[in-house]
Specification:
Length: 148
Amino acid sequence: MKKTDQEITRSEHVFVSGGTGSGKSALVEIYLAGENYPYVVKIDTKGEYFERKAAGLPPWKNLIEGEDYQVVFKLKDLERADKPKIIYCPDYEEQEFAYYDAFFKWVYERQNTTVWVDELMSICDNPHKIPRMMKAVYTRGRSRRTTV
């Protein structure tokens, strides 16, 4: 595919800003559903998956659950995931710093993966302390084709 002026390549950095309800998450969701990002893991710490299912909405716009992506609720089940796109909805017990660190370790070792974090403060409630392996992805992920 030929690059156009409207495309953002994997090597370019993007910052999406805007007020609450302005469509930031919707934009990122549709973009990461595309072919330019074949391996994506969304970490859903807000329970959005359950909210959408209850409302009869697709958990990931433009994609089909079970066909284009799969949903995982336990960190240990990520190893068995067989779809390139994943929504990881950590259950209540796994919404802890140590589990987030283990998640980013899995991402770092998996390589070739884009992590979609919609609410960073749910992972790093202390802005001065981030999971060690999240830092590894931020600082050394490029050589592993891994991004956040």
